[in-house]
């Protein structure tokens, strides 16, 4: 499994990237809005921080304008992956973009059939939203398992990005369920690396070390 950071905040992306465990970035219109900055400027800056797939979302709802937006986004940098919402118009755009060699990440995926259709349309990535399913009483991780099994059984190409991650267990379970990538908010990334026994262990080692006679 690979880890991406789910953020449009360049400070968070820089800190995460310094850990050496992040190989891509996902953004969405809500994350961009939080920054209060120009979309293109944020995306361009992210491309200078992380050398890997960077998802930027198209906001048009019809296939034609979506394709035009995708072409503009893809022209920013070769690492840009265009996020396309899982709708009929979105699928039309995905198949046209696949023919033009533009990579797509089909987002807002909440069922195995949606993931199947995204794959058949030529998506490069699919993003099932685990946390948002859990929020309404469904099992987001079951969806990851189902998609992984279907893609495996039928040799379907997209990489599965486990998205809408709420806590560290979502990451562990996504890895076990067969996701290729988990896209993780900065807060969860920090939670993943910390453990109280690590902290108390360091404290004990340092206090014992202080007792070692020094020349
Ligand atoms: C995925 O690419 C989305 O940006 C994100 O994971 C959505 O998460 P949320 O449900 O916390 O908004």
Automatic annotation (TrEMBL):
Domain of life: Bacteria
Gene Ontology annotations of biological process type: carbohydrate metabolic process; pentose-phosphate shunt
Residues at the active site: 83
Main localization, broad class: cytoplasm
Pathway the protein takes part in: Carbohydrate degradation; pentose phosphate pathway; D-glyceraldehyde 3-phosphate and beta-D-fructose 6-phosphate from D-ribose 5-phosphate and D-xylulose 5-phosphate (non-oxidative stage): step 2/3
InterPro entries found in the cross-reference section: Aldolase_TIM (IPR013785), TAL/FSA (IPR001585), Transaldolase_3B (IPR022999), Transaldolase_3B/F6P_aldolase (IPR004731), Transaldolase_AS (IPR018225), TSA/FSA_arc/bac (IPR033919)
PANTHER family: TRANSALDOLASE
Protein name stated in the entry: Probable transaldolase
Organism of origin: Desulfoscipio gibsoniae DSM 7213
């Amino acid at each position: 499994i690979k880890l991406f950071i789910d953020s449009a905040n360049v400070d968070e992306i820089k800190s995460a990237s310094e850990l050496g465990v992040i190989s891509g970035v996902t953004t969405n219109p809500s994350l961009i809005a939080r920054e209060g900055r120009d979309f293109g400027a944020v995306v361009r800056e992210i491309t200078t921080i992380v050398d890997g797939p960077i998802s930027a979302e198209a906001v048009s709802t019809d296939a034609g304008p979506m394709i035009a937006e995708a072409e503009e986004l893809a022209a920013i940098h070769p690492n840009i992956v265009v996020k396309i919402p899982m709708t009929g118009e979105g699928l039309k755009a995905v198949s046209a973009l696949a023919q033009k060699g533009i990579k797509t990440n089909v987002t807002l995926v909440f069922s195995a059939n949606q993931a199947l259709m995204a794959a058949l349309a030529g998506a490069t990535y699919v993003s099932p939203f685990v946390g948002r399913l859990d929020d309404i009483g469904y099992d987001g991780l079951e969806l990851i398992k189902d998609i992984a099994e279907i893609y495996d059984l039928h040799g379907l190409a997209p990489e599965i990005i486990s998205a809408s991650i709420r806590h560290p267990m979502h990451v562990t379970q996504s890895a076990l369920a067969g996701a290729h990538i988990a896209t993780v908010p900065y807060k969860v990334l920090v939670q993943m690396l910390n453990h109280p026994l690590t902290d108390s262990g360091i404290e004990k080692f340092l206090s014992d070390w202080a007792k070692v006679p020094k020349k």
